[in-house]
Amino acid sequence: MNEAKLILFKAPKEWVDGDEVRMMFRAMLGTVESRWKERIDTSVVETLMLGAKGYIDRDKTNVVTDEWLRFLEKKKFPKLNSLCLSRCNISDTGLSEVARRCSNLQLLNLFLCRSITDIGLVEVGRGCLNLQTLNLAHCSNITDASLMAVTRGCLNLQTLNLEYCSNITDASVLEVRRCSNLQTLNLYGCINITDASVLEVARGCSNLQSLYLLGCRNITDASVMEVARRCSNLQLLNLEGCSNITDASVMEVARRCSKLQTLNLGGCWNITAACINALQQLHPQLAVEEDY
Hints:
Layout: H1 19-29, H2 36-39, E1 47-49, E2 62-65, H3 66-74, E3 82-84, E4 88-89, H4 92-101, E5 107-109, H5 118-127, E6 133-135, H6 144-153, E7 159-161, H7 170-173, E8 184-186, H8 195-204, E9 210-212, H9 221-230, E10 236-238, H10 247-256, E11 262-264, H11 273-282, E12 287-289
Parallel strand pairs: 1-3, 2-4, 3-5, 5-6, 6-7, 7-8, 8-9, 9-10, 10-11, 11-12
């Protein structure tokens, strides 16, 4: 069931995750017209969840629309730092309202908000300068223009998810280098990405711990080697489907990234058995996923 969830207070221990509290909030806040929303003190709210969790029924949108976000206009959220709008049917108008009124946001989840375009995301880049986590997975209508606004305004980003943002290219990804504290970057399915931008990310984001390049078919040894040389804290590297890389770059990763825990090489047809054996000798604890 798609429903809005609003976390407003610290429930008694025996209530946490209990059916009773979930039923109570569904009854109180399950509709746009609910009178209960007017009676709630939001001055201590830190986390606001109006979206659905996970990937279940990913083709369905949540009941939350821009009408729900009018709640933000009427209430004050001085401590709000985490906002989940996953799979919500909101427009640029609603997102712009969020950006204007929630300047202290540190986490913004816009997973599968397919109605969002550059217009709304540019406002996020201008208004939410404290963002540390931004999930834009499957926001297929955003382009380089708005991602540039985000990377120039939100310099404290630590996690950026661009999974299946098919209109994103090197032009904006190379600007991610500005976010020197970045720890996780997901470019899964960004088919227009090449070595040009990944090289710049590696040079500017030396704190990277997780890098997802699944399906980035244009990636070659050049950028993977630069990641290995610059990002010594790397713990997870997913190269599934990067069919142009060879043993040379994988061995560079093995030699330089001593903290590596997970390496996905599915669909990397040029990687040899000798390379895999050498990897496992250098990193006995390493989980290596190979061709299926």
